[in-house]
Amino acid sequence: MKPSRAQVLRQRIRHTTWVLLAIWASVSFAWVPFANDLNFAFFNWQFNFWMAAQGSVLTFLLLTILNAVLINRWEKELAQLEDAPAD
Question: Would you say residue 83 has pLDDT above 70?
Fold first, then answer.
């Protein structure tokens, strides 16, 4: 049996949330144990310092914007599907 469009959208929302959460966790925490090894120039800054000072925060902001755009679009479509009369 083929899943309905509403079920596909709900699954896509959950999957996107988990993927973005995993990206956030890896950018926020996964690089910390390797900070001494990440000692190369990045925009005239040391990469480990850049990630601690700006990179993690900027990545979090980009993920938040991406989440808002995608989830709002899918929830709007989901609301239209749920409001439509059943055939």
Answer: yes
CA-to-CA separations, 69 to 5, 7, 32, 45, 63, in angstroms, rounded: 19, 20, 29, 31, 10
Task: Return the structure tokens found at 16.
Answer: 């996107």
5-25 and 56-83 helices cross at what angle (nearest 10)? 170
Q: What is the pTM of this model?
A: 0.74
What is the rounded CA–CA span in Å between residue 85 and residue 54? 49
Per-residue confidence (pLDDT) for residue 67, from 0 to 100: 96
Q: Which phi and psi angles does 84 have, rounded to 5°? A: -70, 145
**Partners of 46 in the beta sheet?**
41
> How far is residue 1 CA from its own chain's centroid?
30
Placement of tokens 């989901």 in the chain: 78
